[in-house]
């Protein structure tokens, strides 16, 4: 049997692909065990984050769980409808929601603790104790670096937004100044225009009102 072509992207050496496979292994184990609680692994992670830090905003939860904003918003809606979480207006920001775990959420979280540990074990039990510690340490380091990068990007975006707002305000001020100058020139031109109906001046028919009949 002839060998196939050389792969353009060897999946076996892709860190991203290997991490996804490991995550799928953990996700499948959790889903198998957590049928009674009705939680997904992601929902469990959200409940664990909210239980650990009550009052987190959804933006905080995006950073804490690494679940993208649109997916998390949909999860929040469904989990609130199931009575797992409670959302209320944040004290320090009227535009943000503070998220807290509801009694039913605490019950579901406690019922799923052993399942979450089993999901971790699905990955870690394949390694020696030393390699387990090394893997956790490496993943934590990657997570911290990712958080630092996200914070730098957020600061850069805020800075760019402020610069853009200043530029737009400057352009609006220039445009308004141009309109004022135009209106001023128009008023000046109008005030200098001779009154054709003034005494002694020609009428609209071109005849002076003082002309002899």
Please state the average pLDDT score.
85
Kindly report how far apart the N and C termini lie.
Answer: 121 Å
Largest sheet: 3 strands, antiparallel
Give the overall shape, derived from the CA principal axes: elongated
**Low-pLDDT sequence parts:** none
β-strand percent reads 5-15%
**Rg, alpha carbons:** 35 Å
- Cross-sheet strand order for the largest sheet: 1-3-2
Describe the structure.
With 213 residues, the chain is mainly alpha-helical. Helix content is 64%, strand content 6%. It is built from seven helices and three strands. Strands 1-3-2 form a three-stranded antiparallel sheet. Helix 3 (58-65) packs across helix 4. The chain starts with 14 loop residues before the first helix and ends in a 21-residue tail after the last helix.
Summarize the structure.
By secondary structure, the protein is mostly helical. It contains seven helices and three strands. 12% of the residues are buried.
Task: Describe the SSE topology.
Blueprint: H1 15-33, H2 41-52, E1 56-57, H3 58-65, H4 69-81, E2 85-89, E3 97-101, H5 103-111, H6 113-124, H7 129-192
Antiparallel strand pairs: 1-3, 2-3
């Amino acid at each position: 049997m002839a060998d196939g072509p050389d792969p353009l992207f060897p999946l076996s050496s892709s860190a991203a692909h290997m991490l996804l496979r490991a995550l799928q292994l953990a996700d499948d184990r959790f889903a198998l065990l957590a049928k009674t609680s009705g939680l997904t692994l992601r929902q469990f992670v959200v409940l664990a984050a909210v239980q650990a830090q009550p009052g987190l905003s959804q933006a905080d939860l995006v950073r804490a769980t690494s679940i993208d904003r649109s997916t998390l918003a949909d999860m929040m809606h469904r989990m609130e409808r199931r009575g797992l979480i409670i959302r209320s207006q944040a004290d320090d920001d009227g535009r943000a929601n503070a998220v807290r775990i509801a009694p039913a959420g605490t019950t579901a979280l406690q019922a799923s603790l052993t399942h979450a540990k089993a999901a971790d074990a699905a990955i870690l039990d394949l390694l020696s104790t030393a390699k387990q510690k090394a893997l956790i340490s490496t993943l934590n380091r990657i997570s911290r670096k990712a958080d630092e990068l996200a914070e730098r990007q957020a600061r850069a975006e805020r800075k760019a937004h402020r610069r853009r707002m200043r530029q737009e305000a400057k352009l609006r001020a220039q445009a308004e100044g141009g309109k004022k100058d135009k209106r001023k020139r128009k008023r000046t031109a109008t005030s200098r225009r001779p009154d054709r109906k003034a005494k002694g001046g020609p009428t609209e028919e071109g005849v002076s009102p003082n002309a002899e009949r």
